[in-house]
Amino acid sequence: MRPFGERWRAPYACDPWASRGRLFPEPVSPTRSEFQRDRDRIIHSSAFRRLKHKTQVFVYHEGDHFRTRLTHTIEVSQIARALARSLGLDEDLAETLALSHDLGHTPFGHTGEDTLDECMAGFGGFDHNAQALRVVTRLERRYADYDGLNLTWETLEGLVKHNGPLLDVDGNPTLKYAERGVPLAILEYNALQDLQLATYASGEAQAAAIADDIAYDAHDIDDGLRAGLFRIDELRAVPFLDELLREIDDRYPGLELSRRIHELTRRVITRFVENVLAEGDRRIAALNPSSADDIRQAGRTVICFCDGITKADAEIKRFLYAHMYRHPKVMKVRAEADDVLRDLFRKFKAEPDLMPEEWRADLPKDDEPRLARRVADYIAGMTDRYAILEHQRLFDVTPDLR
Predict the structure, then answer these.
(1) Between these two residues, 5 and 76, which has the higher pLDDT value?
(2) Backbone angles phi, psi at 310, to 5 degrees
(3) Domains of the chain, earliest start first
């Protein structure tokens, strides 16, 4: 039975009432759709709460106004819902995927992922996308009947494939997995429940993925300016941003800096969202899909920027990489965070009894790959604050990370 007041969906949207189901079958809820249930399970998970104290770019104690993984996730969710609503997709699934997309991230942002990947080089590496799948299928232990959250096929598919297929039609790894192969965690789960790794994801997953890009660009410009890592007029080096700044200055001459920054970032979001809607409408009309599978089988991304905005997005990311992500202040903190996580990995791997009981239970000490993965799981789940406290507990000197 469909609940009262359900929203309209286009024929190519994912239908929660026709879901491919869950690995462990459950009775249908009388009050919520399947995707709404997935969303609620993610919001109530421990991993989601920990996003509050996980770095986006700045460590939590550097200031209360900078984004964390949690605030970033909320911003992505808002944009994903707006895109889904306008394109006739299922808003709840798009929101669910936006809320879950960063669950596998480590403490200290991408620094933590890079560090754990190097520490795990001999044991399959570390990938935040694969880790997110581990979180929702294994590491969350809340329910009496199963490990994980037992999410729908559509949510798991979108979580794994939101950036595109992982395999080509011949079964060879694609994208960033071409050299190292698809992470074992994804392959192992795929053997249990086929996520169709050679196809594109649903329109809802594509909307969540492009929402992530939009949110990143806008809020990293905002945070970088407020942190003083670059000046607003330096952004004129990016033609797209120069045009927006000219528009703001013509309309609001002499506007104070804080308002000028906000006017810029809101225009970045607006122009990007409007472009995705226009390009999405164009590609959908050309494809004329009659089902969600038509989107998956399209052979290319359907919900995306046009070529001109794709170029602007790349130029913004290049500017931020040079002026923000590789700023000396940020690099200093990255180096210190790297030291913290390397120390913790070596310590816990050498002395697993230092981990909490639930993390060392049933862990054979002569199985090095399994031990290394358990240590990586434990560290990946830490917040910035907890990683620092653990380092202080185990070592005489801990970097200040400021």
Answers:
(1) 76
(2) -60, -40
(3) 17-159 (1.10.3210.10), 203-328 (no CATH), 334-394 (no CATH)
